[in-house]
Every structure is written in structure tokens, then in C-alpha cells.
Amino acid sequence: MAAVDLLEKRSSFYSDRQHLVVVHDFVGGDRAFAFLGYGDDWREHRRIFHQHYHGQVVENYHPRMAKEARKLTIRLLTTHDFMQSLRVFAGAIILGITFGMEIQDHNNLYVLLAEKAINRLLVAATPGSYMVDSIPLMRYIPSWAPGGQFKHEAADLNEHLTLMFEQPIEFVKKALLQGIAEPCVAATLLGNMDDKEDLEKSKRERVIQNVTGVAYLGGADSTASALGTFILAMVMNPAVQSTAQEQIDRVVGSACLPDFTYRDSLPYVAAIMYEVLRWRPVAPLGIAHRVMVDDEYNGYHIPAGAAVVSNAWAILHDPARFPSPDTFDPTRWLTPDGQLSKTTLDATNMAVFGFGRRICPGNDFAMASIWIAMVHILAIYNIEKPVDDAGKVVEPSGEYTSGFVVHPVPFGAVFKPRSEAGRSLIESLIDD
Ligand code: HEM
Q1: What is the H or E stretch that residue 383 is in?
Q2: Cα 387 from Cα 235, distance rounded (Å)
Q3: Which of 63, 139, 241, 274 has its CA 20 to 30 A from that of 304?
Q4: Can you tell me the distance from the alpha carbon of 274 to that of 70, in angstroms, rounded to the nearest whole number?
């Protein structure tokens, strides 16, 4: 596969990012190291991020993730906006684990601030959004002159991004001083700073702001997107839903909720997760890599500086690898005896998390969050298409938004507790 040949096997010179004038020079968007050029600074950010979000460490976060999944099942009993509940779930996990924050709903001030900043940063990071990226001399146009408007927008975004990165660290610093800080990634990182010199300290604090701030940026919307696709797939494929529920009932029983100890014994549920990620990839075109030197591949010349886009959609819808690619079929991830096939264990095969040295460092974290939400929802609810006032079933359009991270366009889904026992289980959780 060309993406593997270039982005993985030649990753020492295919791991840079494009320099975007607005993102990099005007708004400091590379505080999110997803946009930082390849080099020592990026390496340092990635190393620290990895220490707190890699596979084994994620296991420490399982209890918190399971707690948020229980809260999600409670919310789904009463909500009219299940997508909002999924967003709250995804955000609460990241903000809880990273900053020790408790998020109850979407009106949390930090969430509102962060979402505004992130949405605008992603627009700025989309090539073609600003003319100055094509005509760099425009950077010298005064902000009041025609063509200089982008500078006002950039100044405003810069302010929002600064707050987004600084506010939660200030929150944790204050809590540490008062001795009331919850155990969280930011508290651990700040706690390890005491032995540093002052100059070293301020540099280090900036890196801490950056690696913690990027978690919400990279993880909240993407996780919510995958869960939105999961709900859509369940609404459209009731037989898949009931096969998963049979497995959960058989392995876990109906007296308790499944937790992470069941992850390996529910291969069909894992297969649904892989199929969700394949069927409607969260970021269909990933984030472009920039090649740093002239290169040749299969007779093609690839000039230094070119943007190399890994088309996750095309890779995951290649009929040679995934027959009938538009069909939602979890069994494609299973062996004939119903076990998870080995290929799923390699994130690269998923393409959905990108490639090489830039591969998504939050992929274990993301898959743990997605799995625990899915298994809770499947254990407790039947997810059905809604019926309108005339008694007609309302079909989802199945369409998606466009953008960097895509979402199903709003559709209806009804969450019906599968049994009285299930309903009582949720109600007992409300009293916890
Ligand atoms: C379903 C969920 C997710 C998907 C589909 C996803 C996908 C991606 C993709 C495609 C990239 C670009 C990879 C490349 O350049 O080759 C990326 C980068 C990144 N992701 Fe994720 N991601 C998800 C969840 C998360 C989570 C939960 C976190 C944080 C906890 C996270 C943090 C990051 C970071 C920091 C980068 C930048 C890596 C770098 O440039 O070195 N992501 N992600």
C-alpha cells in the first residue's frame, strides 16, 4: 500500500506538516502538536503525550471511562439529543482524565470555549481557507486594508486558543495549591516540575499546556463522531445489534453492566467497533504529511515540500480488501469461529488513525472510550428508528457532514430499555 510504503517505511522524511501562514504564524495553532513541524520540539511533545496516553497507561483510566459510560446510559434514558450526550461522554472522559474536571453537560464554560477555538482552528488548517496561504505576501497587508480582514479573525482565534490551552492548567495549578487537585495527567506533569530551573520551568509548563490541551482537541469530536456512526449503524442494522446483544447476554448476563474485563470475551462487539471505524472513517483524509526531501515512488517524482494525503476512505473502501465496502458487516473482522482476526490488532490496518511517526497517539485511548460506550448502550438499550405522528418509520438519510472530522447529519434514534431489569439497573445507577 502506497501509504505504508511512504508514510511508514520512509517516515524519517515523510513526517513533517505543511506550514500554514494563518495557523502557524498568526494564531500559534502549532501549540497543538498535530500541526507542529517535524523536529525536536514535536518529538518532545509527542514523547510526553505518549507517556500519559499509550495503551498500558490507558488501562489506569478504565474505571473513569466506565463511570462516564454509566452516566451516558442514564442520560440516554431521558435525552432528546443523543448526539449531545455522546459529545458530553467523549469530552468528560478526556477532561476528567487530563485535568480532573467534572463535566455534566455541554454548557460547561471550558467546553464552549474549546469547541469554538477548535472549530475555527480546523477551518484555518483546511488548505484554501485563507488566501494568504497561497499568496504569502498578503501577510504584509495592514489589517484595516482590503484583504487584511484575516488578521482580525486570526487575532481573535489566537486569544481563544491561548485561553483554551492556559485555562485548564491554571485550574489544576490552583487545585494543587489548595491541596484539592484530583489525580490527573496535568497534576502529575506539574508535580514533576519542582526540580526544574526557572527558565526550564516556563518552557516545560508551555509543553505541559500543549500536550494536555491537545487531548480535547484531538479526541473529543473524533470520539463523538465514531459513536454517532455506531448509533447510525445500529439503527440501520438491527440484526447486527441483536447478534451483539446475544453475545453480551451469554457472556456477561443481564444482572450487571459489562466492564473492561469482558473486552476480550466479546469479539463481536470489538468487531462492530472496527467496522464503525472502517465504514465511515472519522477523518476520511487524515492530516496531510509533508515530505521533506525529493523522492521517487513507482516512477513518480514527489518533490520536497509536497503534501501527502492518506485517503483513509479509499483505503477502507477498497473492494479488494473489504468486499461490498459499503455494507456494514462486523464479521469481516472475525475468523470463521467468531474470534477477532489478528489483522485488527494492528492500528495501521485501520488507516483511520493515520500512519508512521505521526500515527494518532490517542488511538488506544479512543478505542477504549468507544468500546465501553458501545457495550453499555448495547447491553441496556434497543436502538430503533423513530416513528412519526402518522405512524411511519423515519429512515435516516445516512448522509455525512463534510470537513476534517465528519459526522452523520442529524438523524432520529429511539433508545428503549431492553427489559424491565435493564431499566431498573439504570434507575439504580441514578441513585449511586
Ligand atoms: C476515533 C477517534 C480518533 C481518530 C479517528 C483519530 C485520528 C487521527 C488521525 C488520522 C491523525 C493524524 C495521523 C497522521 O498524521 O498520520 C491523528 C493525530 C492525532 N491524534 Fe487522533 N484520532 C482519534 C482520537 C484521538 C484521541 C482520543 C486523542 C487524544 C487523547 C488524539 C490525539 C491525537 C494527536 C495529539 C494527534 C497528532 C499526532 C502528531 O501529529 O504527531 N486522537 N488522529
Answers
A1: strand 381-384
A2: 12
A3: 139
A4: 22
- Its ipTM equals 0.99
Nearest to 89 by CA among 280, 189, 230, 245: 230
Decide whether any atom of ligand 1 lies within 6 Å of the 308 Cβ: no
236-256: burial string, b at 16+ Cβ within 10 Å, e else: bbeebbebbbebbeeebeeee
Query: In whole angstroms, how far apart are CA 237 and each of 271, 273, 287, 396?
Result: 14, 14, 31, 12
Which residue's alpha carbon is nearest to atom 19 within ligand 1? 360
| φ, ψ (nearest 5 deg) of residue 339 | -90, 160
- Measured between alpha carbons, how far is 383 from 143 in angstroms, rounded to an integer? 52
Across-strand partners of 381?
417
pLDDT at 187: 96
Phi and psi at 196, nearest 5°, equal -95, 150
User: Strand runs (DSSP E) across 213-305, as ranges?
Assistant: 289-290, 295-297, 300-302
Give the up-direction half-sphere exposure of residue 33: CA atoms within 13 A in the CB hemisphere.
29
Atom of ligand 1 nearest to the CA of 53: 30
Characterize the bridge pairing of strands 307-308 and 295-297. Answer: unpaired
Q: Comparing C-alpha atoms, which of 185, 168, 213 is closest to residue 98?
A: 185
363 CA from centroid of ligand 1 (Å): 7
Find cell 495557523 and name the residue. 23
Per residue in 322-368, pLDDT (tens digit) is 999 999 999 999 999 999 987 666 656 679 999 999 999 999 999 99
* DSSP type of residue 341: P
Q: How confident is the model at residue 198 (pLDDT cuts 50, 70, 90)?
A: low
2-430, CATH topology level: Cytochrome p450 (1.10.630)
Could you list the beta-strand ranges (E) of 230-340.
289-290, 295-297, 300-302, 307-308
Report the b/e string of 180-204 with b at 16+ CB within 10 A.
Answer: ebeebbbbebbeeeeeeeeeeeeeb
Nearest to 182 by CA among 171, 192, 193, 166: 171
207 Cβ below 6 A of ligand 1? no
- Amino acid identity of residue 125, one-letter, is A
Ligand 1 and 287: CB distance under 6 A: yes
